[in-house]
Amino acid sequence: MDPDIQRRLRALPSVHSVMSDPALANWASRLPPDALLRIAQSSVDEARSGILGGSTLDPAAIVQRVANRLSEMTDAAGSIVVNGTGVVIHTNLGRSPVSRATADAMAWHAGRYQALELRLDTGERGGRGDEVSQLMGALTGAEQTLVVNNNAAAVLLTLAATTSARDVIVSRGEAVEIGGGFRVPDVLRQSGANLVEVGTTNRTYLRDYEAATTDNTAAYLKVHASNFLISGFTAAASLTDLAALGRLRGVLLIEDVGSGCLLDTRQYGLAYEPTIAESIAAGADVVCASGDKLLGGPQAGLIVGRAEVVKQIAAHPLARAVRADKSCLAGIAATLRHYLLNEAEREIPVWWSISRSPDWLRERAERWQAELGHPFVEVVQTESVVGGGSLPGRTLPSFGIALAVPGTASDELARRLRTGSPAVMPRIIDERVAIDARTVLPDEDTRVVSAVRAALG
Ligand SMILES: *Cc1c(COP(=O)(O)O)cnc(C)c1O
Q1: The predicted structure's pLDDT at residue 393
Q2: What whole-number distance in Å separates Cα of residue 40 and Cα of residue 289?
Q3: pLDDT in tens, 74-94
């Protein structure tokens, strides 16, 4: 072994000496001794691998690393960031932030007992999620709603519970992958159903479904393409036609709409996105959607549709494995209430962001610029997008501030923003670090200004 590496390995402190370092005395008195031991051990191990890999770590830095790690581990708000990316539903940033009322409802319900499966008037056992069902019913016309962990679980459970290993017909253009491992053919296989693909990638007609329907067909599955566009010479069977065919042939119509939108996206200058209400009205028996995309609520999957079918799905053994907890149910209910009270645009962060006008955003960016009063901060025009697997291929005109400091690389500026307090996730435009005004939440102006001021130094 390289004598230099040997020397550095010998210089590594023992786990015990790290633990008893005076700089960690405060932690040592508060933590269970085994926990501190494990953290110190892993930091020493990490340093050893680093040295073997050729790094030149100062042994004294190990204690500092343990201290940093403990600070991070004990900081409940540690991973919170300001979203300056201009991507409205950013999967890596936790998709939709929920409304204040939703966050309050979730915290309130999480910390209390509640009549979750109990009817207070009779004292008898009641249904979990009745409140969500009523709200969804009012908003979409659906008879019943079941809330599960996420939309992937909603689709998997729906197929497992309704198809009993029989055939499910899917258009070739819809046997897609929706990022992060959600692939329609794989989900179908896991549910036990047998995938029957019909049509071609770009064109599938009603007659294709008709020709493939047999006595063994359990369902037609429609999947919203969500994160890509098939454009040009295309055709798809309409939901209404498929619903009629399904009723005629005794085949269930299941639709995975993806984002779970309840508003008309076109009034905001966005591409058309199917809504749950439209799918129900068109005759889908069951519609599956995410809670934390365009619905703007907490992570959840919604199974919305005919009472008879949703009841059957809720009774499947897998339903218990993917059920939503009380906090999630309270959060979805609180989010739906905003739609019922027609205040989604004002209260739900995703819709607040989408509905900001370019003028409003420019003025916001100009305010930041004025407050910063820094020569290297410029107001710039940007394009924001709605991410998280919805509304592909369409941007919203926006504004933000761009920073450029002579002598400081934009990578370094971006790093300072990401690791500052508060942390800000910027975007890079023309090699400059920028913060898009659209995705910064309404109460985050002072946070942005102070974060930028610190990063500019
Ligand atoms: C996003 C998406 C899913 C997965 O939803 P999760 O809530 O992330 O589990 C499934 N299907 C479609 C069409 C989607 O857009």
Answers
A1: 66
A2: 44
A3: 988 888 999 999 999 998 999
Ligand 1 mean position, distance from CA 207 (Å): 28
Give the pLDDT score at 116.
Answer: 84
In angstroms, the CA 144 to CA 149 distance is 17
Pair of tokens at residue 150 = 């996420």
**Predicted pLDDT of residue 432:** 93
DSSP 3-state assignment of 273?
coil
Nearest-atom number in ligand 1 for the CA of 292 is 7
How far is the centre of ligand 1, averaged over its atoms, from the C-alpha of 362 (Å)? 33
CA gap 170, 329 in Å, rounded: 31
Residues in the chain with pLDDT values less than 50: none
225 CA → ligand 1 middle, Å:
10
Whether 352 and 442 have beta carbons less than 8 Å apart is answered as: yes
Q: Is the peptide bond before 422 cis (omega within 30 degrees of 0)?
A: yes
List 305's β-bridge partners, or say none.
Answer: 144, 286
Q: Which residue carries 């997008």 as its tokens?
A: 385
Query: Residue 285 — φ and ψ, nearest 5°?
Result: -75, -40
Query: What are the distances in angstroms from CA 296 to CA 98, 109, 256, 352, 388?
Result: 6, 19, 17, 10, 11
CA distances from 357 to 179, 268, 272, 384 (A): 30, 9, 19, 12
pLDDT at 457: 84
Name the residue at shortest CA distance from atom 2 of ligand 1: 258
Q: What b/e string do you get for 327-352 counting C-beta neighbours within 10 Å, with b at 16 or more?
A: bbbbbbbbbbbbbeeeebbebbbbbb
Q: What is the dihedral of CA 200, 204, 208, 212, to 10 degrees?
A: 60
Residues 6+ apart with CB under 8 A from 238: 206, 282
Pocket test for ligand 1, best of 96, 184, 221, 290 (most atoms within 8 A of CB): 290
Q: Hey, how many other C-beta atoms are within 10 angstroms of the C-beta on 436?
A: 29
Distances (CA, A) of 434 to 92, 360, 379, 414, 457: 18, 17, 9, 9, 16
- Say if CB 361 and CB 399 are below 8 A apart: yes
Lookup: tokens for 382: 């940007």
C-alpha span between 335 and 130 (Å, rounded):
15
Q: How far apart are CA 107 and CA 331, in angstroms?
A: 9
